[in-house]
Amino acid sequence: MTGKSNSLWTILVLLVLGIGSLVARHNLNLGAGDSDYLLTYTADFHARSALMPEARLMAAFPETTRYCRVLEQEIDAPEMDLVRTRVHTAAARKDIVLKARNPGQITCSISFRLQLDRKGEGQNAPDAALTPRERATYTANAKGMTATSDTARQIVNRLLDSHPGPHDLVDRIFREVFHDIVPAGETGPATGDEALMHQAGSPLGRAQAFALLCRHAKIPARLVTGFEIKKGEDIRPQTWVEVYAVNRWEPYDPENGFEGALDYNYLPVRRDGVELIRVTNSTDLSCSYSIQGIPPATRTIWGIFDLRRLPGKLKEPIKVVLILPIGALFTALVRTIIGIRTFGTFSPTLLALAFVYNDWRSGICIFFVVIATGFVSRSFLDQLKLLLVPRLGIILTMVVMLMVLSISVMNYFKWVPGGQTVLLPMVILTNLVERFYVTTEEDSIFQAMRLLINSVALALVIYLLLRWPDLGDLLFHYPELHFFTVAALMLMGRYTGYRLTELVRFRDLVPPPESHKG
Amino acid sequence: MPKPSRWRFWAWPSELKKAGIVGINRRNGSFILPVNRRAFYPRVDEKHITKGICHATGIPVPETYALIENNGDVKRFLELSGNRPEFVIKPAAGSAGRGIVVVAEHDGQVFVTSSGERHTLADLRYHISAILSGLYSLHGQVDLAIIEQRIVRHDVFANISVGGTPDIRVVLYRCIPVMAMVRLPTRASRGKANLHQGAAGVGVDLRSGRTFGGVCMDRAIARHPDTDYAIAGVEVPFWKDLLRAAMKLADGLDLGYIGVDFVVDANLGPVVLEANARPGLNIQVANRRGLAPRLEYLDSLPPERLRPDCREEQIERVAGL
After folding, report:
1. Handedness of CA A18, A23, A24, A29 (dihedral sign)
2. Domain ranges in chain A?
3. What total of structural domains would you count in chain B?
4. B93 in a domain, yes or no?
5. What confidence score (pLDDT) does residue A485 get?
6. Were both Cys, which of A14, A307, A327, B13 would link to A349 (CB 3.0–4.6 Å)?
7. Are strands B101-106 and A104-116 parallel, antiparallel or unpaired?
8. CA distances (Å), B151 to each of A133, B60, B115, in order?
């Protein structure tokens, strides 16, 4: 049986290929997002002397969150050397540290290639429990944030009147800051103390005021500085606050009104601080930031295998197309394992594909209207004695007209949600009408109806598969899973057991049990 | 003979396996694919090629009056076929009896079929055109229409067929007949001898050519559903000749798994109507027996035991399985 061993070998190869590419994908760590951005820091400063300690620059490294990953970084600093990429474990903070080779005016830029994923399929690293020391740090006074001030005490005491829980209290403080400290633009009071005093503040001032009040209430709070990722030159970093009310850090942004969660495109860069770039032994630091959208295709050749880099409008159709082989798999299952017959092998799959782009209920209605009317006209055409191809042409024309009429009727009575067009595959419908008619003539209307209902039922099941978003996403992320689809089809191709319908068809051929004979 | 058990709705796979029933998947995967070369399928899918092979090997077939190949000849089909009083129109690449019209009498304008339907000349011309355009062909491609001799039905089946001519299907594996049945037209099948259109199938003992048991619309029967005559115990005339012709055709076609359809003509004896490279499995129901033991037995034989001179012996053995 060479066919058998060849098939087994092929299946084995397919499985190896499938698993191999899954593993390779994992190791290549192919990206996970809809778009790439290039975040660039540019720093300009004067290094004072090359003596020890030499001038150093520390740049905060953007964090990896579930929405955003740093794919790579590039340092363009001809007059500087990389010292190290320093990781502060306590605050989960990373810095790039550069040192100047010579004194004098220095310009350097650091770029990060970021990949943003709106769905957030990565995972945030879980927050570690706060150590007593951290708790102390994040409830203490800090520059511009005097948590122990009288103003803070008055406000917090007022808010504490009905003994709220920690979350409630944070909410109250947030509302207090949000409503009672007026936004005063970038030039407004820039520290928490000043903002509280003037009842107005810059974005930073308001964030500090919020953190300060939390700290006064012994709820750990820290400033976070980062970016809202959107294209633009001369972007300003934004500062918001993270509060450790119960057992995890939750973001609050008085400036933009975010409570407990930020938009997916907020990228934290530095925690417990405001400056993203700091220098030592230098003067005249000026920093600027820009964010560019970049075409992801310019990455490595391996990116070809990563469909997620494709532009958004291509994604949905590709997901549907990727599920089609599952439709074929299902068709094979229904036909060779179950033994249900339909009109045409892949007609149900193609019908299902049409339903995906339409409202399926109106699709089904139109389907039956077209088949029924088409059938009646086909019976009429039979009397005219026309040859096959012209006759099919007439049926196609009628199918088109009926479909357009149905769409117009549905639109007139506003039966179609969202004004979608309902375009079913017309050539398939044409063949269906013809075959339906021929089957009623040659076998019976009963047989024709049975085949039609089987076809529609199979189409609906495949439609559900096509509409299953998790399946689409899975195949979109791991198209190599289709190696397994082919392997499964191959196994089915070698299946020589009974079809389920044959268990019924041949039931009379089973001899009665021995005991009944005697 | 096992008595059909009407109380059950299905059989377990293990029971079917034990009864030796071959399913479609097994027929295709284990028996047809290994022994039937795809390149030879046109020999059976196109009836005029089958007929040519029959002619070449001296197997009797209905005489071909005309082969209509293009629409220009459709108008003249009566003249081309020699103005015969009765004839059969069939698509060369038809399947399951589709598109066959049997004209029993006509006056040049009105044509009466064997089942009593009346057609005009225009109807028949249209029908032939439809055949040529591929309406009845296996895959819908352009086809030929064959106009051939109408078979004179042998009396032996007169009481147990309605509206058409019964035919005899013999399934051969590795050129040895493994099972046979007679297909009796019924009113429900509208004169067609196809089981799925409602004809009755009756098992035939390979050794004697005598009918036994029967099935109609997947249910066991003992009498013809329309005439109520017993369908068992009828002896197919010229049985040995029929089996020899079937084996000769199998040799000529070079296909390992085929079904050959015969009709018994009152004058000519058994003639080949067509052969089929994917014969249906209903023959098992008609015979109340599974094909598996017979096919497996033949598979177990070395090639020299399948030579023409050993075939009589093998038929005896197969029939006993």
Report:
1. positive
2. 132-271, 306-477
3. 2
4. yes
5. 93
6. A327
7. unpaired
8. 105, 12, 14
- The mean of the pLDDT values for chain A is 80
Q: Name the token pair of B308.
A: 């023409």
Given an 8 Å threshold on Cβ–Cβ distance, is B21 in contact with A509?
A: yes
pLDDT score of A21? 86
B299 has a chain A CB within 8 A of its CB: no
Which ipTM was obtained for this model? 0.78
Residue B108 lies in a domain: yes
pLDDT value for A125: 60
Each residue of A378-420: pLDDT tens digit?
A: 888 877 767 777 888 888 888 888 888 887 887 787 776 554 5
Which of B129, B148, B167 is the C-terminal boundary of a domain?
B148
Distance from CA of A402 to the nearest CA of B (A): 25
Q: Does residue B15 belong to the interface with chain A, where contact is any CB pair within 8 Å?
A: yes
Q: Which of residues 216-255 of B touch A (CB under 8 A)?
A: 218-220
Cβ of residue B12 closer than 8 Å to a chain A Cβ? yes
Distance CA A112, CA A221 (A): 28
Q: Which two tokens stand for residue A249?
A: 């850090």
B200 shares a domain with B314: yes
Question: In one letter, which amino acid is A36?
Answer: D
Q: Min CA distance, B118 vs chain A (Å)? A: 15
Q: What are phi and psi of A424, to 5 degrees?
A: -95, 160
Residue with tokens 């040995």: B240
- Please indicate, yes or no, whether residues B128 and B231 belong to a single structural domain of this protein: no
Same domain as B24, residue B169 = yes
Chain A residues with CB-CB distance to B133 below 8 A? 387-389
- Cis peptide preceding A53, ω within 30 of 0: yes
Q: Please name the residue of chain A whose CA is at the shortest distance from the CA of residue B283.
A: A506
Residue B7 lies in a domain: no
When pLDDT is averaged across residues B281-288 and rounded to a whole number, the result is 88
Same domain? For B160 and B309 the reply is: yes
Looking at the structure, do residues B133 and B165 belong to the same domain, yes or no? no
- A512/chain B closest Cα distance in angstroms: 7
**Best CA proximity match to B101, nearest among B131, B72, B65, B73:** B131
CB atoms near residue A22 (< 10 Å): 15
What is the bridge-based pairing of β-strands A238-244 and A249-253? antiparallel
- DSSP symbol at B275: E
Q: Are residues B33 and B112 in the same domain?
A: no
Residue-wise pLDDT tens digits, B72-122: 888 888 888 788 888 889 888 876 667 888 888 888 888 888 778 888 888
Mean pLDDT, chain B, integer: 85
More confident residue, B1 or B260: B260
Based on C-alpha coordinates, what's the Rg of chain B? 20
Interchain contact, B21 vs A503, CB within 8 Å: no
Contact list, A388 vs chain B (CB under 8 Å): 130, 133-135
| β-pair partners for B215 | B201, B220
Domain housing B110:
63-148
* Same-domain check for residues B166 and B140: no
Q: Is B176 a member of any domain? A: yes
| Nearest CB neighbour to B285, from listed A388, A443, A509 | A509
CATH number for the domain including B206?
A: 3.30.470.20
Last residue of a domain, one of B104, B125, B148: B148
Whether residue B112 sits in one domain with residue B67? yes
Q: Which residues of B touch A507 (CB under 8 A)?
A: 5, 8-11
Looking at beta carbons, which residues of chain A come within 8 Å of B2? 509-512
B37 touches chain A (CB under 8 A): no
Which of A41-55, A328-342, A392-406 is predicted with the least confidence, judged by mean pLDDT? Answer: A41-55
The listed CATH number (3.40.50.410, 3.10.620.30, 3.30.70.1170, 1.10.443.10) that belongs to domain A132-271: 3.10.620.30
Across the interface, whether the CB atoms of B34 and A504 are under 8 A apart is answered no
Rounded to an integer, the average pLDDT of A144-151 is 83
- Residue B72 in contact with partner chain A when CB distance is under 8 A: no
Tell me, yes or no, if the pTM score tops 0.90. no
- Measured between CA atoms, the residue of chain B closest to residue A3 is B34
